[in-house]
Amino acid sequence: MVSESGGNQSVERASAVLNAFTLGRPALRVSDVAAEVGLGISTTSRLLATLESVDLVRRDPVSQLYELGPAVLTMAGIALNNDPIYRQARPVAQRLAWELGLGANVAVRRGAELFYLLNVEGQLAQKSFSLMGQRNPLHATAMGKSLLLGLAPEQRRELLGPEPLHGFTAHTITTFEALDADLARIASRGYSTEIEELALGRACIAAPVRDHTGAVVAAISLSGALSAIALDEREADLGRTIVEAADSVSIGLGYLGPVHTPVREVR
């Protein structure tokens, strides 16, 4: 039992060290990691040395700062290529980004956040970084609202917590009454929109992806700067495009459309 407990603790500590590296802080000193995970310098240094020996972290020879290593990329690639949503959505998203020049994204729900599985940038929405693996709030994003369609109102309230919901800009929905009304419109037309709700100057249009059971399992979106996506002028066209893209991915996952139960005659 002592050995098992010690082994579990080592895994938990190693996991905490790896999670200390973030998009905002991708390169860290030993002292930075120690402060983040709450361990001593010597313990953290030993953990980093062990992780470095198996390529999970690497140390820059010039700055001596630690970064995530190539083994993390290998594992991420294996996980992505084993994910059926990623495999079905990848060619669809690539085509959208190529044809429209916008960003094409695919996300799933992880708890109260959306989790990016896929991010393809078109020529009008180029970034110097990838969104894959990043997270965003559900209530303030088009993809998040599409993902929320799979939950009942009481489930949404339990998941997102008490009002007011966090406001990222003056346009963010912060009440459940407004969110419910928006989701009703989304369910009616088949797609969701987000105009400067998460970040100023940005807009997005998304649609839910369903699996063979009809459950909402992902969302696919088009995003970009306000001037590039121009939702005020072409929302209807982009709405049809993103719904068709979502349908294509859903069909690849085995979705056959709504199940209609025949009404039995009473004799």
From TrEMBL:
UniProt KW Transcription keyword: yes
A GO MF label: DNA-binding transcription factor activity
Signal peptide: none
Domain IclR-ED: 71-255
SUPFAM superfamilies xref list: GAF domain-like, Winged helix' DNA-binding domain
GO BP annotation list: glycerol metabolic process; negative regulation of DNA-templated transcription
Alphabetized SMART domains for the sequence: HTH_ICLR (SM00346)
Keyword tags: DNA-binding, Glycerol metabolism, Transcription, Transcription regulation
Domain HTH iclR-type: 8-70
Job of this protein: May be an activator protein for the gylABX operon.
PANTHER family documented for this protein: HELIX-TURN-HELIX TRANSCRIPTIONAL REGULATOR, ICLR FAMILY, HTH-TYPE TRANSCRIPTIONAL REPRESSOR ALLR
Protein name as catalogued: Glycerol operon regulatory protein
Organism: Amycolatopsis thermoflava
